[in-house]
Structures are given as structure tokens and as C-alpha cells.
Amino acid sequence: MPLLQARNVSKNFGGVQALKDVSLDLPESAVLGLIGPNGSGKSTLLNIIAGVEKPTSGLVTLDSKRIDNLRTNRVVRYGLAKTHQIPKPFSNMTARENVAVAVLYGRRNIHSPTPALEEADRILSMVRMGSRKDAPADSLTVQEKKRLELARAIATGASILLLDEVFAGLSPEELKDSIQLFKKLHDELRFSALVVEHVMRAVLSLSQKVMVLEEGRVIATGSPDEIVHDEKVIQAYLGSKNPAA
Ligand SMILES: Nc1ncnc2c1ncn2[C@@H]1O[C@H](COP(=O)(O)OP(=O)(O)OP(=O)(O)O)[C@@H](O)[C@H]1O
Ligand SMILES: [Mg+2]
Predict the structure, then answer these.
(1) HSE value, Cβ hemisphere, 13 Å, CA-based, for 217
(2) Using CA positions, which residue lies closest to atom 6 of ligand 1?
């Protein structure tokens, strides 16, 4: 039984149809990659699942319970957490304080600052940000801010992570490192994840299945290998004969 399902989700922003009849299944502990050109609706889909936006039509369910009519804070209680494509930490707080807020806000049974800060330290070490825990968030590099976003999502106790381009802008070496870190975290925590990414290498190596959006529609769903060889995907999205390049 799939854990998270979207059914026939459409979203209009004024005259712009950002999503058209999109459905997906995210089974427990699975990693589903979500790719597509700029403006194809990836972030909008994550926002709808996370309760940030409401669908114009269609529905989102978690273990058969409807969640598309809930506010973000209720969705977090159900175990979903989303990172922001543009990191949005509390800039006047340190990295550990930012993560501690997520611990307190989430569905963990931790309700006071001291244990929340201790838990924040543990999570920052897990994502290899331990040495930066006392840095003010606004002094972090873009990559560190992205990792902080990941730490904050994990800190809520989420069993489903919605990751919006957490691997963007990395050097090949940093990317290798981050992919390895993601795999380790997934092995340890067994969350399921919807991973939005432009970096093809990251999507293909992390996901069991990949879904491709173009102009708000799903044009292909399949294994990374199937997606790489799909003519529609090659033409519509990648514009090249070798999408893995
Ligand atoms: N709040 C909004 N108001 C109006 N239009 C929006 C809003 N959010 C998204 N859109 C439009 O919806 C479409 C899909 O945008 P979305 O951000 O979901 O794309 P994306 O696939 O995440 O793109 P990118 O790869 O650039 O992040 C775009 O045409 C965008 O301009
Ligand atoms: Mg986006």
C-alpha cells in the first residue's frame, strides 16, 4: 500500500496552468526522483503536497487520509517535511538554533530548548555540519544552507522528505559526497523521499523511480534506466542524445 499518493492534481495560478492532472505514488522508504525543465511544475507539486499551496483540483492522501486541505503545520505533524528551493533559515540564529526550532516544531516528543539543541547537534553531525553548528545561518555558504535545510527537514521527525534541489550548485566532488551522504541517511532513517533535482547524476543514482514533468504534465515515469532512454524525455527535457552526460 503506497504511503503518499497524489491523484489528478491540477494547479492554476491565474492564467498559468502549473500542473495538469498529475498523479504519483510514493511507497514507504522509496525514493522517487522528479525532474523536468524550468517552470515545469516541480516546486508547485512539492508545495501542494506540503500544504503550502492548495490544488485547484485533485487530492493528496497519506495512508488514505486526505492531506491537501490541511495547513503546513498539520502536514508536518503527519510526518512530511519539505526543504525550500531557496533556503530560508532564520538568518539571525545559528545553525543549531535553526535545527532546534525544527525539532520543537515537528512531531518529535521534545518540548524544551535544551534537549532540542542537543538533538540539533546530533542531526547536524549526521549531515556533516557539526563544525558549523554555531555559525549564524546568514554566514553559511549556499551549499551549507542547503544542508541546513536537509537537517531541518530531518529534525521534524519526518518519514517523508520533499527535497527541492538540495544538490544544486555543487562541484563534482561535493556532489559525490552529498550523494553518498544521502544514501547513508536513507539507510539509517528509512524515510521516503521525493527528490526534485536538475542534477541528472544525483537523480539517477538516488532514485528507484523517476517521474518527468513537462509544462505541468507527467510525460514519463520509470526506472532511471528507462527514463534515460525515453525518447519523449530526451526530446522534451534533455535536448540531447545522452541525458546522463
Ligand atoms: N505563486 C505563483 N504565482 C504565479 N505563478 C506561479 C507561482 N508559482 C509558480 N508559478 C508558475 O507555475 C509554473 C511552474 O513553476 P514551478 O516553480 O513549480 O516550476 P519548477 O519546475 O519548480 O521550476 P524550476 O526548475 O525553475 O525550479 C511556472 O510557470 C511558474 O511561473
Ligand atoms: Mg522549482
Answers:
(1) 5
(2) 13
